Amino acid sequence: MTNSRQVAGSRQQLRDLEALGVPATDARVYTALLGHPRTRAVDLVEQCGLSAQQVARALSRLTASGMASRVPGRPARYLAAAPDIALGALAAERAAELRSARAAIEDLMAVHREASRFTHPAELVEVVTGAENIEVRVRRLQDEARTQIRGLDRPPYVSAPGENLDPERQRLKAGIVYRVIYDREAIAVPGRLQNDILVSGTDGERSRVRPQLPIKMVMADEEVAVIPISSSPHVVDAAYIVHASALLDALVTLFEAEWDRAVPIAEALTDPAPHRDPETTTLLTLLAAGQTDAGIGRALGWSPRTTQRRVQRLMTELNATTRFQAGMNAKARGWL
Fold first, then answer.
1. In what order do the strands lie in the sheet with 217-220?
2. Residue 262 to residue 256: CA distance in whole angstroms
3. Is the pLDDT of residue 151 over 80?
4. pTM for the whole thing?
5. Nearest Cα to 100, choosing from 136, 55, 57, 50?
6. How many other CB atoms are there within 10 angstroms of residue 135's CB atom?
7. CA distance 201 to 265
8. Angle at 242 between CA 220 and CA 188, to 5 degrees
9. Burial class of residue 149, CB neighbours in 10 A (0-12, 13-18, 19+)
10. CA 191/CA 193 separation, integer angstroms
């Protein structure tokens, strides 16, 4: 007899198919058909190590679900559908079920926290691990905000920059105020300033920039905040969820202090001088934020030589010997 594990799929493949909701016998028959198209039922009995009745029932279910089809002619032969078609819908369905389950867990956790908060102070701060779980909590935090979202934004990011544009736009239309302070490293990410931050500003986000932020944070009202605990250079893998408490009050104070010191991006890019081209106005904003030449080059897509040339030309035009002086002179002239 032919080795059934080789013909009818590896044990791991069979387990993966079962995880998608495909019965074990159906998984064996389907994987056997993938390796041997146009196979007869009698041959599947030998290849899969199943009885004729088991194979017949499996083929009936597979053809009914679209995972296999009968080839015209006699004797009857069967053909497996391509995995991306046959299994893609099942995988999407399971992913939706997992998202729903995570939301249910969050609902239950909210009940648990509310019931135990006053008897267990430790419940005022949670720890969440895993980038996907953190992303779910941040999305939920924004969805449940009643008046405003505060943000301290700096790399790394759980989701790609720009993915939050549509949800934020919807919340802004609902009257939720967004105030976000960006670290200079955030606006130096290629394309982020033009394709994400400025777009959010057009939608109504109130955004400012600081040379450096002490932490990364998203806060809803004065109710809850998410703060990364630790992160690699590219991925946030753990975060604190801080609920209403003295600690959250301190975070509100921190944000407001940073906000007062930050440079408004929207005001900087509302150019009162018609002769200022958009790139120069953006360059002024980056200089006022304390951005380095390397950061300016990344943000605007300039080479090091072009960046140095444009910065020197602007400083000469502003009669400034330092970047700080350039920013002050630009403000005095009404450019910022």
1. 125-129, 236-243, 224-231, 217-220, 148-153, 177-183, 206-210, 263-264
2. 10
3. yes
4. 0.51
5. 136
6. 18
7. 8
8. 65
9. buried
10. 6
